[in-house]
Amino acid sequence: MSLSIPIVKFSPHKAVPELEKFLLRPAFDPKAEETARRVLADIRATGDRAVQKYTKEFNGLQLPVAKFAVPREEVLAASAEVDLVFKRSAAEIFTRIVRFGKAGMRKDWSMASPKGGVLGERFTPLARVGAYIPGGAAPLVSTALMSLSLAKVAGVPEIVACTPCDKQGKVNPYLLHALEVAGATEIYRIGGIQAIGAMAYGTNTIRKVQKIVGPGGPYVTAAKKLVYGDVDLDMVAGPSEIAVLADETAVPAHVAADLISQLEHGTGHEKALLVTPYMSMASKVLAEMQRQIESLSRRAAIEVAAAAGAMFVVADTLDTGMDLINRFAPEHLEIMTKEPRRWLQKVKNAGAIFVGPWTPESAGDFVAGPSHVLPTGGTAAFFSGLSVDSFRKRSSVIAFTRADLLETLPLIEIMGQVEGLDGHARAGKIRFTPPS
């Protein structure tokens, strides 16, 4: 089977309906949202019983409620099963994530008010968070490290992980070891909508969390949207996306490999966009992709994802191409041009940016340091990726002196008068009124 990827020409003065549809992909699947709404309502009403019911319906597994939680002994047994090379790799990746996370943490700060008081902000960790770790087509060991580690750095005391198990009720041992390294305090072998519902509403077995983070397929993404308000969320982190801006200096084999790396996730909803001013580059990349997938284990999934969600655009200039990518607002953006740092300055919307020929997207997925939990579906235009501060609350601090309050009292009184809130005005004025 040959790859089916359209190649379209684009200039700002000519509308291309096929391209517009690709750029304006929905962040949420309406059909998935219908299913998620039904399942979540049942979980809210009947708790563990509904979680058990849908685990059987969606995963084909009759899982006793007593088996929801992965006991400590099972985690330790899994760690003993894992090879030493992986253990060392996981430890090194954890160290890189922690180093980057600590460097980016916002610090408590303060400034003097005009009359000697103090204004500022302080940051405190959430008490209990939940992380969803996909485990369908592949156990996303890296996601465990890229999400829970940040909660640990932030100082969250209770870190809950939910991940699907296999038909025998077993969680991949490499994933369990990664969860242990990353700092999970509770692990549940629950996936899909039912995991999101259990963490959002709480059941007799799984206590409610304050925030849910982590990527997932269309059903998990829809479920997260619907529970917002009952819990906080990180972002819309759905099926993987990649965009590549390439000029004539890019190596077609490298571009092809990077596009394939995101299409292979296997949900069938992935997006891959190549933007280049050169038709010859687009043609060579397509030929390379066809050649490279021949030897890959996920060839069938890649072909399905490419047919449903890949597009090559031949733009009239690199500037036009960058404008197009900013409209697309991809989860991952690779800049493979002669002067990549120059084009970096023109990026407005992207979850993570990979600069130059030696920065494949997989480096960000696995080892670089920044979390690979990133916004998808065009939401990189207004959401940011997961960070340590995603697991902390920000509180403003106001400590006025008598002189500060006296100076601002006229402003308080005016605002109280205009808004019809005379009690507000009195709360300031009474401090300067002698007791009767």
Write a structural description.
With 436 residues, the chain is of the alpha/beta class. It is built from 17 helices and 14 strands. The chain has helices at 17-23, 30-46, 48-59, 72-81, 84-104, 141-154, 173-182, 192-201, 218-227, 252-263, 279-293, 299-309, 318-328, 340-344, 361-366, 402-418, 422-429, and strands spanning 7-10, 109-112, 118-125, 128-132, 158-162, 186-188, 211-213, 232-233, 241-246, 271-276, 310-315, 332-336, 352-355, 392-399. The strands form 3 sheets. Strands 1-11-10-9-12-13 form a 6-stranded parallel beta sheet, with helices on both faces. Strands 6-5-4-7-8 form a 5-stranded parallel beta sheet, with helices on both faces. It has a 3-stranded antiparallel beta sheet with strand order 2-3-14, with no helix packed on it. α2 crosses α9 (218-227). The radius of gyration is 25 Å and the shape is globular.
Task: Set down the secondary structure blueprint.
Blueprint lengths: L6 E4 L6 H7 L6 H17 L1 H12 L12 H10 L2 H21 L4 E4 L5 E8 L2 E5 L8 H14 L3 E5 L10 H10 L3 E3 L3 H10 L9 E3 L4 H10 L4 E2 L7 E6 L5 H12 L7 E6 L2 H15 L5 H11 E6 L2 H11 L3 E5 L3 H5 L7 E4 L5 H6 L25 E8 L2 H17 L3 H8 L7
Parallel strand pairs: 1-11, 4-5, 4-7, 5-6, 7-8, 9-10, 9-12, 10-11, 12-13
Antiparallel strand pairs: 2-3, 3-14
